[in-house]
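#lab-general

N.A. 3:47 PM
ok so I finally got the sequence cleaned up, no stray characters, all 235 residues accounted for. can someone with queue access submit it? mine expired

B.Y. 3:52 PM
send it over

N.A. 3:53 PM
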Amino acid sequence: MNANHRFAFEDNCVICPLRRASDFCHLPPDALERFNEIGHTSLFPGDAVLLGEGQLPPGVFILCSGRAKLSMVARDGKTVILKIALAGTVLGLSAAVSGRPSPVTVTTLGPCQIKFVDTESFLKILKDSSAALNAGMELGREVQGTFMDVHDLLLARSSTEKLARLLLSWVADESGNHDVRLASNFTHEEMAQMIGSSRETVTRLLSEMKRRELIRLEGSTLVIPDRIALQAIVS
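B.Y. 4:20 PM
back already:
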């Protein structure tokens, strides 16, 4: 596979073809020029650990493309996946700004293109008002997203409801109701870590959902035939 072609690799934020409507992709021109001069862009393979739970971050990692999982170890020793970060997410932002250790471990899910900026350089550029505002907006979304995740988890009364909420969250941006498709690429163990359950429970619940025709598999693609029927579980 030609990684450079797949990820449109360009170590220049100003002309990068992956720029999107995320905060640090759309700084004002002068601030973007300064931001482009600090840090560097690299390609990371899957399963690369960017941040370690309880460790001081070396800087921030801006996910230009790909996905990463945020996880932590619970008191019982089990790993819990808190969130799947998508392209445009700034990883390690709260730890870098606060100067505290990272509360989570961040691991890439498949190949990722990432821009890294060391903490000292990042804090210096935050003295620019536009960059500081964008960092504040990103932190606000991070807090709100975390609150909503906890909110949904507390509302769920059963593992079935938690799993249904997880599947629906993966297709939240998809339009339509019938035959909504998604390629999750997650193992049953990872799905269990996302809902605080066991692998055996997730396997059983998925089988039950297939029996009830709430979901079906077409190769590696999971299909939700009727989104409203699945939503009825969580309503």
